[in-house]
Amino acid sequence: PTISILCLSREKQRRLFAVLSAVLLLGNVELQPRKSVYHHDEAVAVRNTDVVSLISQLLRVKQETLLAALTAKRARASGETLIINYRLPEAIAARDAMAKCLYGALFDWIVLQVNHALLSKKDTLRDHQGNSIGVLDIFGFEDFGPYNSFEQLCINYANEHLQYYFNQHVFKYEQEEYRKEGI
């Protein structure tokens, strides 16, 4: 099986591979500490701006915007926007988070394209909501300390609702049994 099974146009295929290339190239972005000109704290700089230039072309964003996202964050305080320089560990985490976010969005888009390719012509002509079977197990809550992700929040939330449904079902069943037995 190849990507042609998805019936993607050449332009969509080109964009898919451009984003995937950008994700891979983000891992090659080298960050180094530098002294901030305006403050006494440490800031970071990108050592290989040629890689950032290529990534910005692939993602169709300005190189300055990408450099700013990799080296600093914006915060709002008292109606003002402050630019706060990352330290090296924060910049590395931001770079890796950017790659993860891009890859996640690309994966979701590919799944959407696969689902669309699997729909019959009849289903595409009408407002098809799709059929699905959801399988969840009640394993329990997991806590990975400070590294819990949004995905883990959703898993824990689903587990909580499954447990609630299970409890409601069991208690209603037991109450019905008690009622039948006159207890």
Entry keywords:
183 residues; alpha+beta; Four Helix Bundle (Hemerythrin (Met), subunit A); 2 domains; 4 strands; flat
Q: Any idea how many domains?
A: 2
CATH fold title of the largest domain: Four Helix Bundle (Hemerythrin (Met), subunit A)
CATH superfamily of the largest domain: Myosin VI head, motor domain, U50 subdomain
| Strand content bin | 5-15%
What best-fitting shape do the alpha-carbon axes yield?
Answer: flat
The biggest sheet amounts to: 2 strands, antiparallel
Mean of pLDDT: 82
Give the ordered list of helices and strands: HEEHHEEHHH
Detail the poorly predicted runs.
none
The CATH architecture category of the largest domain equals Up-down Bundle
Fraction in helix: 55-70%
| Total number of strands | 4
SS class: alpha+beta
Report how far apart the termini are.
63 Å
Question: How would you portray this structure in words?
Answer:
It is found in: Cytoplasm. It comes from Graphocephala atropunctata. Belongs to the TRAFAC class myosin-kinesin ATPase superfamily. Myosin family. InterPro entries: Kinesin_motor_dom_sf (IPR036961), Myo9 (IPR046987), Myosin_head_motor_dom-like (IPR001609), P-loop_NTPase (IPR027417). This is Myosin motor domain-containing protein. The structure is a single chain. The chain has 183 residues and is α+β, with helices and mostly antiparallel strands. The protein has two domains: 119 residues, Four Helix Bundle (Hemerythrin (Met), subunit A) (Up-down Bundle); 37 residues. Helices cover 57% and strands 12% of the residues. The chain is built from six helices and four strands; from the N terminus they run αββααββααα. The strands form two sheets. A two-stranded antiparallel sheet has the order 1-2. Strand 1 and strand 2 form a beta hairpin. Helix 1 packs antiparallel against helix 2 and helix 1 packs antiparallel against helix 4. The longest helix is centred in the C-terminal third of the chain and has 32 residues. The radius of gyration is 25 Å and the shape is flat. It starts with 9 loop residues before the first helix and ends with a helix.
